[in-house]
């Protein structure tokens, strides 16, 4: 990598992260210790904002209708198409909803550290909510440094989808469990056209293609984003280099330009002609919701699901995977925080509510009780993701006070890495660590 690109990467890290901290500063921090507002003793109306629309919005409204019926003093108004930007603007303007639902768990660190979402700790303590009903990884992405300003609503777990017909054609009788097996299978499953172009890819190693993101891959390699002191650990954790070198070697097998031409002709991620659904890719990493896409858009595809493979030296962790999900909290300045908490507690801990939402959305619920409930609609292919959810090796990326900024900075670097523009990987990762840590410190001033 050139020094110019290195300086640009550092500037990008600084600017993006500083922007995150500016957002946090605009949200304002807590000015007094958090308290648990009591439930309302008179009729009140609360507003619930989410980015859901159409079928998903109607499912949320149905659950809130059931909550409304159980609460004589609380009425609920649900609004859709309200993303995190709109929620943040409402908080800044002093007109926030009482309950905010975010589909971006990476914002939790920013919301908690800035006070933009209120600390729920006093409510949890008062009502003796048993958080052990929620997997540790889910608890991790819904709090920041001991402040729990959100609760989980639904979850997405990620695993491997594989085409059974292509596997049988290649003489493969089970999904890969290690990265060495994934590499071997990918090559055996790949078919080339007479002109050398790719006809069928066993696995596409190109990052940022469909769900090939470092957040999804890192847990399979045991790669940590930060060390015990909270410092960026891209250079100090050897798992990152192992992951990136594996990705580059498989990319080189296909050829970067040839891989680019192949992926450019494939359908978009949410379209009916998505590459796995058309049989042009034999294996992909994806979330549980792909089962619903396949049932709707490509019901004739004969496929299976399995946990994503792990690094060869981590065989004992096979069965886990990456998790993220929707979060729900009380924005600073909410008119009815006591009533809002009752709605949040219902959405995040009530088994009936969790089951209805999970079944309607096609997502994984966020409590162990709901994930193991017989009324949860799950065939054997969806069951894979419930098993991942209950695995002790479930993992997530740590929340940060700048939201997605540090991850975006890493992604910018990885674009150059996979294109062959990085000469000294250890040195560049060390520079990236320094840039990330410097930008965090700059944002705190």
Automatic annotation (TrEMBL):
It is found in: Cell envelope. It comes from the Bacteria. Keywords: Signal, Transport. It holds the Pfam family SBP_bac_1. GO terms for cellular component: cell envelope. Residues 1-24 form the signal peptide. SUPFAM superfamilies: Periplasmic binding protein-like II. Part of a binding-protein-dependent transport system for a sugar. Belongs to the bacterial solute-binding protein 1 family. This is Probable sugar-binding periplasmic protein. It comes from Tamaricihabitans halophyticus.
